[in-house]
């Protein structure tokens, strides 16, 4: 049996585009979802900064009583991780709802939409990572406040 001289495998995304299997709507939805993630991360940084700086009096008292910056940083980052877990769980619930809506559409790709375990794990992992990344700078800034300065203000 003879084989073609140009036997090669195309990358998956090129093959899908060549066969027109990925509608333009899906590409736009992906772009909008990524943009929404960036906006949410910027919002989370601002909210965490406000929350952590509001805790400055408690942090200063703990530091004056002998707590290390590292211990306070671990506490603040743990709070951010809990927010990430809750956000990931809420995001997964919304994803299941959205997938049910997509499956109800008459489009040919609607029946292909499903949620697998790997994607679920990645979603929760991304939520935790994103919340920790958003909390690094606010937590670090909150730990750098001199205790004496904050205690004088009280």
TrEMBL record:
UniProtKB keywords: Cell membrane, Membrane, Transmembrane, Transmembrane helix
UniProt keyword Glycosyltransferase present: no
InterPro entries in the cross-refs: ABC3_permease_C (IPR003838), Macrolide_Exporter_MacB (IPR050250)
Subcellular location per the Swiss-Prot or TrEMBL entry: Cell membrane
Signal sequence segment: none
Principal cellular location given in the protein's record: membrane
Membrane topology: Multi-pass membrane protein
Native organism: Rhodanobacter thiooxydans
Domain (ABC3 transporter permease C-terminal): residue spans on this chain: 31-147
Transmembrane parts of this sequence: 31-53, 73-97, 117-140
MF annotations from Gene Ontology: transmembrane transporter activity
Protein name: ABC transporter permease
Pfam families per the UniProt record, alphabetical: FtsX
Entry GO terms, CC: plasma membrane
